[in-house]
Amino acid sequence: MNEQLEWPRLRVADWTDTRDTLHMWAQIVGKVRMAHAAPVNHWWHVTLYPSARGLTTTAVPHGDGAFDAEFDFVDHQLRLRTTDGRSRSVALVAKPVAEFYAQTMAALTELGVPTSIHAVPNEVENAIPFAEDNTHAAYDPEAAQKFWRQLLRAERAMSGLRTEFYGKASPVHFFWGAMDLAYSRFSGRIAPPHPGGAPNCPPSVMREGYSHELASCGFWPGGGDEGAFYAYAYPEPAGYADLDGLPEGAYYDRAMGEYLLPYESVAGAPDPDAVLGAFLRSTFAAAADLADWDHQTRTR
After folding, report:
1. What CA–CA distance (Å, rounded) separates 235 from 226?
2. CA pair distance 97, 236, nearest whole angstrom
3. Domains and their CATH numbers in the chain
4. Mean predicted lDDT score pLDDT of the chain
5. Which Pfam families match (predicted)?
6. CA pair distance 75, 54, nearest whole angstrom
């Protein structure tokens, strides 16, 4: 298969406006899931998942049945479906967040799934209420589709590593707060209370997410010319910031407190999966070794 199709190339600077609009749309849909799904530790009940056509909530219980919402980046529609066979769609075209929000809430009501959410974005500096956001209104369908394909490729690589760990671990899922695909492993030990600090996000949210010691990795459309893979540990053990032998292009960002590997360093490599695998394995091994995780639960 053509390498460019395997690892799609998309410069962040070329789709920033679309990215920021899609981020707000994803927050709306994620909050809809959160309003109806049963709570799960570390906020795992609020996430979205890459699907064969885009990003989906998966089935969310409601009444005697369920519904789902899926960003379809092939036909560029938000698909809303219920288990009784009804459906509605909201077109994914250039439009203000306020319009997308109104159309999505109206479609849910028509389906018998009226929903009330905290209609203000989280984890962004300029948190414009959705109903008032006429600032973010861009949508480049080609860029949105490439981003989805980046997520699919990253998910495949990250999911391939899950079998190597015996202990408690998250799914590979899409957090709409920071707009990143994430995967976390846990030592089993309680972590010190997280200090918070994410913009427009209560400290209690961060404390639940980081209630237990973890090593996390993921991909998000920032941190490099074409986005970046990341890895970090919480709490960060002594010496973690000074690792040797990382893949070319990887570095520790002291301001962010995590390792970054630009997407382009992976996609442009002769063997992208090997480069990404080396980055994810080495940063996890360092976090576990330096924090003295139980070896018997760490690897197969």
Report:
1. 28
2. 37
3. 10-132 (3.30.920), 141-297 (no CATH)
4. 95
5. DUF5996 (PF19459)
6. 10
Question: Secondary structure of the chain: what % helix, strand, coil (to 5)?
Answer: 35, 25, 40
pTM > 0.90: yes or no: yes
d(CA 262, CA 279): 11
Which region holds residue 157: left if phi is over 0, alpha if psi is between -120 and 50, else beta? alpha
Asked whether the beta carbons of 102 and 90 are under 8 A apart, the reply is no
Please give the DSSP secondary-structure letter assigned to residue 137. Answer: -
From 52, 12, 45, select the one nearest 30 (Cα to Cα).
Answer: 45
CA 21 vs CA 24, 101, 103, 237: distances in Å: 5, 12, 15, 37
pLDDT digits (tens, 9 = 90+) for 59-85: 999 999 999 999 999 999 999 999 999
Which secondary structure element, helix H or strand E, spans residue 57, and what is its range? none
Q: How many CA atoms lie within 13 A of 161 on its CB side?
A: 27
3-state secondary structure 245-294: CCCCCCEEECCCCEEEEEHHHHHCCCCHHHHHHHHHHHHHHHHHHHCCCC
Q: What would the two tokens of residue 94 be? A: 């250039």
Phi, psi torsion values for 171, nearest 5 degrees:
-70, 170
State pLDDT tens for residues 18-48. 999 999 999 999 999 999 999 999 999 999 9
For residue 195, whether the previous peptide bond is cis, meaning omega lies within 30 degrees of 0, is no
Can you spell out the DSSP letters for 206-235? HHHHTSEEEEEEEEES-SSBTBEEEEEEES
Token code pair at residue 72: 């379809």
| Residues 6+ positions from 53 with CB-CB distance below 8 Å | 70, 72, 73, 74, 75
Residue 239 has a CB neighbour count (10 Å cut-off) of: 11
